[in-house]
Amino acid sequence: MSKTVAFSKHSVNVFFHILTRCNLRCSHCYINPDQHGRETLSFDTVSAWLNLFVSKTRDANLILLGGEPTLHPDLARIIKTARAMGYGSITVDTNGYLFHDILTKIAPKDLDFISFSLDGATPGTNDAIRGKGCYENCVAGIRQATEKGFQTSLIYTVSNENIHELHQMPPLLAQLGVDRFFIQVIGIRGNSREKVAGIVERPSKRQPKLQPKLQVDRNTWMTLIPKVADQVADMGITVTYPKVFLENTEPFECAGNVAENYFIFPNGRVYRCPLCEDYPLHSLEIVNDQLVSRPKINEQDLFALSIPEGCVINKLVQPANLSFRSDGTPEYQIACCLLKEEVSARS
Ligand code: SF4
Ligand code: SF4
Asked: What ligand 2 atom has the least distance to the C-alpha of 311?
């Protein structure tokens, strides 16, 4: 059985992009340096900013991201500092290349999870999205981490380009010894937004090419995702996936109004909603190492709006996942992108 994980009003989730630089050029990358900055934050700045959020609650969950966070020369020190500050949990999201011999500089006790991104069950599909050689490097990184006793998780960002291989993931996850599996839905932001607009040139072709719809339709999502999640849970691995679609009668809630999620970027922008990250709609900003509110109009003003389609910002930035009846009413609502279903491991 899956259960919807309600937004916790007590926990704080801190998604901290400590740099935007990356060794890869994934075709669905959401990092947008014009909006997020190009800086690699110094150790002192990262420490000062970590302090701003841990002081809100001792139970704050920290997720260190990039770009590729292992490219940061001080990542090990940052992890240990966050642990000493009292963060409730610490996760590092990586593409698997594990630069700076990071696994030799930290111990399993220093962090809760290393989360690897793999977007296909085979090199063919994964590398078409993430780049040549990424599959082998990521799998090697997972093996290295599990051998050293780190807890690992794997993130699979589902789109129409890789959903055909999702059913091949359960045996692969078991073989790799992964502890948790996160299915993500592709967001139409960053490179994906450009791709959908047909303005990205494919390296193999000279002409810009209009891409097909990236987000999978409701029927496919609602039949396939829970089925794969169940299979993975049967292998003793806990699975989390976004709910995405709600019946019109189900209650809709915007995490921006009821939960504490912070998405921090190296230029100081702090968003409460990831769907806003392509625009200067951030409601908070770090200025001189202090967290300050931004004047209207920002994402917070949009969270307050109520529409029959559910999430307001979804309707503004990725409306292709909506569907309407002939009388113009929506067939369903789009849930907050932060609303998750969790299927616990069954062993
Ligand atoms: S690994 Fe992550 S940050 Fe790097 S290009 Fe891919 S999606 Fe972007
Ligand atoms: S995804 Fe939609 S519902 Fe969720 S925080 Fe953003 S605006 Fe609110």
From this structure: 2
Give the Cβ contact number of residue 190 at 10 Å: 20
Contact 97/137 with Cβ under 8 angstroms? Answer: yes
Measure the CA–CA gap between 264 and 41, rounded to whole angstroms.
Answer: 11
DSSP helix, strand, coil percent of the chain (3-state; round to 5): 35, 20, 45
The ligand minimizing its distance to the Cα of 190 is: 1
Query: Fold for domain 2-343?
Result: TIM Barrel (3.20.20)
Find the mean pLDDT for residues 161-175.
97
Burial class (CB in 10 A: 0-12, 13-18, 19+), 170: buried
CA 274/CA 13 separation, integer angstroms: 12
Whether ligand 1 lies within 6 angstroms of the CB of 190 is answered as no
Is 208 a residue whose pLDDT tops 50? no
Number of the ligand closest to the Cα of 69: 1
Q: Which of 16-30, 38-52, 124-138, 183-197 has the lowest mean pLDDT?
A: 183-197
185 lines ligand 2 (CB under 6 A): no
Find out whether the beta carbon of 26 lies less than 6 Å from any atom of ligand 1: yes
Would you say the CB of residue 95 lies under 6 angstroms from ligand 1? yes
